[in-house]
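Journal club prep, shared notes

We agreed each person brings one worked example of a sequence with its structure written out as tokens. Mine is 37S ribosomal protein S28, mitochondrial. I'm keeping it raw so we can talk through how to read the token line rather than staring at a rendered picture. Sequence first:
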Amino acid sequence: MNSIGFYRSFSVSATILAERLSPKWAAKQIVPENASRSKLASLKRKEKRWKRQIIRDINNFKQHKLKNIQFKVDPVLGDANNGFIKRVNQEIQDLSNLSFGYKRDEVEKLLFGVEKSNLNMNLNSSGSVYDNLIKAEENKRKSVLTILNLKNSNNKERKKIAVERAVQEFARNEGDTGSPEVQAAVLTVKIHLGMQHVKQMFKDKVHIQHVRELVQQRQRILKYLKKTRPEDYFYCIEKLGLTDDVIIREFNMDKQYFQDYKIWGDKKLIKLSEKQKKREEKYTALEKKITEYNELAKKKYDLLS
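Then the structure, token by token:
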């Protein structure tokens, strides 16, 4: 492969290069008519010098972009439109689910039986007493359902229902609670519930560390699943709203993450040092330079083609 073919182009953001950039055309010198041999040699040397500079700038910027490449999805929460998490949230908000594992229809049947029994025991009571008894039984029913309502329960009960839903969706067979898929799904649910708390309590460093450990544990489990059962791995991460890069790449849930993904809004968490500012300015200038190369290549192509 010749150097021109190798360095012909590379893909960067649309703001930098909309089309392929060829160093051949960016460095091309326009030779005037009746140019002397010394002039031709000088232009040739200039073209080679420009070409080396363009290739060097492109490669430096390419390496910078590769080092700072963004994840395809949020490495902690995954795809915001993930169907699995939406179903878990619906399960938590479902009014048929009550605290302590009770189902609404089962409790309703029990309350109806108690109410009917009490009313049958007082059939011979006077009309006003009987009416008051009916109202009392109805108040009892409302009180019990209010106490058991998930909205009035603690996070532990909501987490329990969410975990049960995760196990149901990812279990390989009935009774499966320990397969890598189930473990990853349960950890994902716990991560989402934990991040809800983190968003509200940004100073809770203990809880942030707990969520960080859950994310690392999920990475280890999914790496193991990829090694042992690749097909199940890709199906699992797709269903969890994750991508392969957030599993295999190194990741720290640090201030940079919280700032980049706006977990606490537009709050600035990291202040760049002078050295970092100079580095950013350097690559901003390099980005502008490459844009100029691209524009120059187009102009020279139009003139010489």
